[in-house]
Amino acid sequence: MADLGAPAQPKPSSSVKLVLLGEAAVGKSSLVMRFVNNDFQENKEPTIGAAFLTQKCNLPTRTIKFEIWDTAGQERFASLAPMYYRNAQAALVVYDITKPSSLTKAQHWVAELQRQASPGIVIALVGNKFDLASPSGGEGVDDVDAAPAAEGETNEDEESIDARRVPTKTAKAYADEESLLFFETSAKTGMNVAEVFTAIANAIPETSLKGPRGVGGQTNLGRQEDARVNLTGGRTEGPKEGCAC
Amino acid sequence: MSDTEPRASETTPNNPPTPPKKSDPIEQRDFANPTINIIQSASRKASTSDLSSISRESTPPPLPPRPKNLGLLDSRPSTSHSTAPARPQLVSKATTQLSYSDTNTYNNETQSDSHSSGASRPKNYFGLNFGSRNTSDVEDYASMRSFAPTEVGIGDAESMIGELGGDREKSLLRSLGHRFEDQESESMFPPDPQFEEAFKHEFDDIPDMEADGSNEESVMLQWRGKLKHFLILSSAGKPIYSRHGDDQLITNYIGVVQTIISFYQSANDTLRGFTAGDVRFVVISKGPLNLVAITRLPESESQLRTQLDALYMQILSTLTLPSMERMFATRANYDLRRPLQGTETLLSALADGFTRGSPSTLLSALECLKLRKSHRHIINNTLLKTRSENLLYGLIVASGKLVSVVRPKKHSLHPGDLHLIFNMLFEAGSVKAGGGENWIPLCLPGFNNTGYLYMYVSFLNLEHPTKQMQERPQSRSGDGDEVAILLISANKEGFFEMQSMRNMLVEQLQINGSIALIRDAVKKGRPRCTDIVPGTPLRHFLYKSRGNVQFVMPGFEPAFADSIERRRLMNLYGKLHVQLHGKPTSLKIHHETSTTYISLAWTTPLFELYCVAPGTTSRAALAQAANKVIQWVRMEEERVFIIGGAVF
Ligand SMILES: Nc1nc2c(ncn2[C@@H]2O[C@H](COP(=O)(O)OP(=O)(O)O)[C@@H](O)[C@H]2O)c(=O)[nH]1
Ligand SMILES: [Mg+2]
């Protein structure tokens, strides 16, 4: 489904193992579903175990095939997580902008990845459910208005439009400190979803790219590197460029 | 049918009191002392019918008011197709078996327009002319009285009325026999608006309680309106799971239930269950857990226990027994909801399956996709040929029906384990909705309740089997064509190994034509009764092969197409099942009859058969139809059941 604009001459393609981590119900599966199927489901049932999906992403000079592990966020699966991130080249650590505790959980995941995952792993911190924030609050990085709301629990029962509890700048500051990619997304509206994956694709060090068939466990680095991509601008805003979504 | 007999007594001020036979005290004794069952079963057998179709006199007729002095009139259904929420237990009482079959035979003969002389009432009885209808009712009443067998006449007046009601319905039906014959899709059961209404909302979510309590009353009302509740709590009284209602709502109930359970425990007695009004409670205690079913559906204690056992198995499947015990060992009031997080949907899918009525659970058996023996053989061999080193069990499943299994010689598959897996894949949306391939750690308690296995799941796109299926139908409506490959391994790192086995397997199945065969079989669906035995009066049946622990049944359509009709059919099967399995004596053959249907349950060392036909069918015709089904199964045995399977 991905290869809509595929040129006659196939572009070099490489596969990227990507894992999604984060508290239950922050929207990991929804982000994947948006990315893979361009679909969204309200009241999605929780993931059980882990789901493995693939999706191609066309960059100008090559095709990236994402091999995605969407894990369940529940505690009891925590001990299985290393199995999924062990060989991953990229991780999407997701929190819910309406739930501060989910950012804390995300920070734990980031720490664990930095300790245990492959050293070159590209990590993106993703604040999901952006659609629940009010249009005025929190869109910008310096978002003063959202801050008070973040602390106030009183909002909960009001007819408040702004459910944001994690100010953009808080998360952004943390992401910068840890050298993470950072995005706020909405799986519901699709906002920034393709961008996250494209940015990751662009940020993967080329030395860690390998052929699409290297699905096994081993990290079998740098097999077909002909197609060089300029990765210096890694964190491009890359709006939908070529991504099949 | 009778759905919730007890309920009738609750809300029927102007009905005759329930006759002694059916009264609650007896139900209670069922729990208190199983031996009562013997007596009951025996007497039921003798009397042809049963607790089965208790009427819902409680139901206010939606149509014009009728004289209240005749309680039986109130029980008259307002729709024409159903003759009456009769009180079949009364019917049976009044009628000897002989007279029954006479009637039935007669009915069969008079399926055409001519109707029986016994049916003295005007033929236009169901013409909805209520004025004249009442008149004729009175006439009926009068004329029927003289029909009433004398021995019954000795009984109290109210049961007499009941008798009359029943007989009258019967003859009404007689006059309408052809109608029932013609209109296959018409209800096999008397209408029961109250039950229908309750059932329609059974699966609706209960809204959260407002903080200010403003909607408390309506929330409570909705909660109480549920026909069925499942509660799971720890032995320390902490809520773990409730099918309906949030914590706030159920706290009080949990408290009450907990108090009752510990009251019994302190008396060194274990509470098994009790009946209160129209509600039946059943409790099972499993180590640190108490599981409670509260039902207004006509289900037996042992059926409810089976259901609670399945919920318990689901919990073990998530946690394993030792780890659950460890959790409680460290802290008696451990909150089990945390480790269970995300599996509520699995528990609820199971619970709802029971509430909708699950033949598989009732029979503790599996259903298979019907395939030619040689075709299944090819599939089995393909599984064996592509079997990967760390594979423990390999299964191909088409929407809950087993297509093929490969397993080690020394391990068979426990039907309870398979039920959990099928529930997860085909009832709960979790795996389905996720897309892609799945790798699911799970404990199969029937296999080994102490450790995890890992299950690779991939749904097949039957049209393009080699393509990965990214998107699957989200609704249950698409469930006829979901085919999944399940590869179970003890190796938690085995995903890619299983994935490559799957790829080989699917490729081979496609080359040897099996995918096409599976697709055709899936598309064909379950046969209708009349496909199985042309001209059969049967509307549905369940046949369980005891040796294979598998069952076969026709489709629910057309007679039981909607979920309410299906539930009622399952109510009937449930009752028949009780008759065959009620301890300690079990019947070999049991009939159950109402004005609208006649049914049969039959058990031998080889099989159990349950079947149902319209009330106009004679016993002889029913027996003959049952025999035909058995002949059919015998002929098709190696197609409808998996015998042996692929073993390595
Ligand atoms: N409003 C809103 N809801 C979302 C969004 N993403 C996910 N959800 C909802 O949040 C719930 C949990 O989503 P899910 O993808 O299952 O979370 P996961 O457990 O992290 O995989 C579901 O009910 C989704 O419909 C989003 O961007 N906006
Ligand atoms: Mg998920």
UniProtKB/TrEMBL annotation, chain A:
Alphabetized Pfam families for the sequence: Ras
Record's keyword annotation contains Nucleotide-binding: yes
PROSITE patterns documented for this protein: RAB, RAS, RHO
CDD domains assigned to the protein according to its UniProt record, in alphabetical order: Rab5_related
GO terms, molecular function: GTP binding; GTPase activity
Region entry Disordered, spans: 136-161
Domain of life: Eukaryota
Presence of the UniProt keyword Nucleotide-binding in the record: yes
Keywords per UniProt: Nucleotide-binding
InterPro entries xref list: P-loop_NTPase, Small_GTP-bd, Small_GTPase
Gene3D superfamilies xrefs: P-loop containing nucleotide triphosphate hydrolases
NCBIfam families the record matches: small_GTP
Protein name in UniProt: Ras-domain-containing protein
Native organism: Lojkania enalia
UniProtKB/TrEMBL annotation, chain B:
Keyword presence, Protein transport: yes
Domain FUZ/MON1/HPS1 second Longin: 390-506
Membrane topology: Peripheral membrane protein
Gene Ontology biological process terms, A to Z: autophagy; protein targeting to vacuole; vesicle-mediated transport
Region of interest (Disordered), ranges: 1-122
Compositionally biased tracts (Basic and acidic residues): 21-30
Superkingdom of source: Eukaryota
Keyword tags: Autophagy, Endosome, Membrane, Protein transport, Transport, Vacuole
Function: Required for multiple vacuole delivery pathways including the cytoplasm to vacuole transport (Cvt), autophagy, pexophagy and endocytosis.
PANTHER family: SAND PROTEIN-RELATED (PTHR13027), VACUOLAR FUSION PROTEIN MON1 HOMOLOG (PTHR13027:SF7)
Family indicated by similarity: Belongs to the MON1/SAND family.
Entry protein name: Vacuolar fusion protein MON1
Annotated organism of origin: Lojkania enalia
Lineage: Eukaryota, Fungi, Dikarya, Ascomycota, Pezizomycotina
